[in-house]
Amino acid sequence: MKSFFIRWLIYGLSLVVVVNIISGIRMDSWQTMAIAALVLGLLNAFLRPILILFTLPISVLTLGIFTLFINASLFSLASWLVKGFYVAGFWNAFFGALAFSITSGLLSVLFNPDRDYRMR
């Protein structure tokens, strides 16, 4: 349960960074940020693996670049599902998802005590 809250906090902080970097993405309140972080976490945990499995041939042909479009689609879907979380267009979703992935990855390395990141 502690890991869930850490991941939720990391996603929330990543959303704050994305909203401040990408001008076409905005949120109404911090409550919206918390809900959007939860929705993004759920979409990434449950829907993203299914989409990656179904689009595996395209991902192999594009050397994994198609995964960025899946991330952008999930980012847009989250904005459609969460009232008060706005993404203006596909390219804002694309760059927002890219910034979100980089930021949450870096924050996970820094703040997630459950993982072992040592090089072997």
Brief overview, please?
The protein is built from five helices and two strands, in the order H-E-H-H-H-E-H. It has helices spanning 2-21, 30-54, 56-61, 66-81, 90-111, and strands at residues 25-27, 85-87. Strands 1-2 form a two-stranded antiparallel ribbon.
Describe this structure in words.
The protein has a two-stranded antiparallel sheet. With 120 residues, it is mainly alpha-helical. 74% of the residues lie in helices and 5% in strands. The chain has one domain. The chain has helices at 2-21, 30-54, 56-61, 66-81, 90-111, and strands at residues 25-27, 85-87. The chain is built from 5 helices and 2 strands; from the N terminus they run αβαααβα.
What labels would you give this structure?
mainly alpha; 120 residues; single chain; two-stranded antiparallel sheet
- Could you give the order of strands across the largest sheet? 1-2
Shape, principal axes of CA atoms: globular
Terminal Cα span:
28 Å
Give the DSSP E fraction (strand runs of 2 or more residues).
5-15%
Structural class: mainly alpha
Number of strands: 2
Overall average pLDDT: 91
Topology of this protein?
Layout: H1 2-21, E1 25-27, H2 30-54, H3 56-61, H4 66-81, E2 85-87, H5 90-111
Antiparallel strand pairs: 1-2
Helix pairs in contact: 1-2, 1-5, 2-4, 4-5
